[in-house]
């Protein structure tokens, strides 16, 4: 079987395989995406970028446009006004984006209170106006990420997807929860099949995919063409590539351990400091350092964990990374 059998084509772009890294605010920044791509992720997506803030030159939104390299550069935009989404798409295009993704899925109150993110599932006409605005602004492929609906009484993902594709969207991703669920309970993959049946573009299933077994089950129940991994990749950015390789029948990249894990965590930490600057980077890195510990089943004494996560001296943190992530601190599970 050729490599192409394990890829998706999105407009004029090919994915490496069928396991993608989900956009996660405050997590899938350029350093995280770069590492996931290096370990074989099929596609990686930027953090959600607020189109209005990007359009007015907000430095943080401009930073989020950074290209992780190696893979098609996917930029996710969020907003509720066509003029800002149009401008955001134009800016992303000029910054080197290869694909524009539109956020219909974020459940955050801060986002939905402004009728962006998953709140758009409640106002389909407004949502489609945003798709029209982005499609008309750029020749780049446009994709949409959504949820099953606002709540269980309005499971309208299939209809929203059909309309989005009619407006020009070339891929649909569906998180198998409603907005009312936030991240509670379990993702439902089977209802995503209604979306697959409604459109003639690739559909990606998302939510609670944490292993190749759960990926295969999600694909089987949904009929989707690919999976998207979000929270399961926290502390293990190599997971997306492992799942992609296994779905394709290839040997998965090895999970870093011992000295390899030390080198990876140190690299990630130092890249975060470069990305954000030392002051903000120290805070941004804490959650990743903690997730690496948890994903590797390492348990530190409370005082050691506090020193690692709260130290404001990069050299000392690097020394602790060499000490704590070496494997000697691994808890017997």
Automatic annotation (TrEMBL):
Family the UniProt entry places it in: Belongs to the dus family.
SUPFAM superfamilies: FMN-linked oxidoreductases (SSF51395)
Cofactor(s) this protein cannot do without: FMN
Name of the top EC class for this enzyme: oxidoreductase
Transmembrane intervals: none
Reactions performed catalytically: a 5,6-dihydrouridine in tRNA + NADP(+) = a uridine in tRNA + NADPH + H(+); a 5,6-dihydrouridine in tRNA + NAD(+) = a uridine in tRNA + NADH + H(+)
GO molecular function, one term: oxidoreductase activity
Function, as annotated: Catalyzes the synthesis of 5,6-dihydrouridine (D), a modified base found in the D-loop of most tRNAs, via the reduction of the C5-C6 double bond in target uridines.
Keyword field contains Protein transport: no
Keywords, in A-Z order: Flavoprotein, FMN, NADP, Oxidoreductase, RNA-binding, tRNA processing, tRNA-binding
Domain DUS-like FMN-binding: 21-295
EC number(s) on file: 1.3.1.-
Protein name from the UniProt record: tRNA-dihydrouridine synthase
């Amino acid at each position: 079987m050729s490599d192409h059998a394990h890829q998706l084509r999105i407009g004029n772009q090919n994915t490496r395989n069928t396991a993608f890294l989900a956009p996660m605010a405050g997590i899938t920044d350029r350093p995280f995406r770069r590492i996931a791509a290096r370990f074989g992720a099929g596609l990686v997506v930027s953090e959600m970028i607020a189109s209005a803030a990007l359009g007015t030159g907000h430095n943080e939104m401009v930073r989020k446009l950074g290209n992780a390299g190696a893979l098609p550069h996917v930029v996710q935009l969020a907003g509720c006004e066509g003029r800002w989404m149009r401008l955001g798409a134009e800016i992303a295009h000029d910054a080197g984006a290869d694909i524009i993704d539109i956020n219909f899925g974020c459940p955050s109150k801060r986002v939905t209170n402004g009728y962006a993110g998953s709140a758009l599932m409640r106002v389909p006409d407004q949502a489609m106006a945003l798709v029209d605005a982005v499609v008309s602004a750029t020749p780049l492929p446009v994709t949409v990420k959504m949820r099953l609906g606002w709540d269980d009484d309005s499971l309208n993902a299939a209809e929203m997807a059909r309309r989005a594709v009619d407006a020009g969207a070339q891929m649909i991703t569906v998180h198998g929860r409603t907005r009312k669920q936030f991240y509670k309970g379990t993702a439902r993959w089977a209802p995503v099949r209604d979306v697959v049946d409604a459109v003639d573009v690739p559909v990606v299933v998302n939510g609670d995919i944490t292993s190749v077994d759960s990926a295969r089950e999600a694909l089987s129940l949904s009929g989707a063409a690919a999976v998207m991994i979000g929270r399961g990749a926290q502390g293990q950015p190599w997971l997306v590539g492992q799942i992609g390789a296994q779905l394709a029948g290839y040997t998965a990249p090895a999970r870093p351990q011992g000295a390899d894990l030390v080198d990876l965590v140190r690299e990630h930490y130092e890249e975060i400091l470069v990305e954000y600057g030392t002051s903000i980077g120290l805070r941004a890195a804490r959650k990743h350092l903690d997730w690496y510990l948890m994903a590797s089943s390492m348990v530190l004494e409370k005082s050691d964990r506090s020193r690692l996560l709260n130290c404001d001296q990069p050299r000392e943190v690097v020394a602790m990374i060499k000490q704590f992530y070496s494997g000697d601190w691994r808890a017997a599970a």
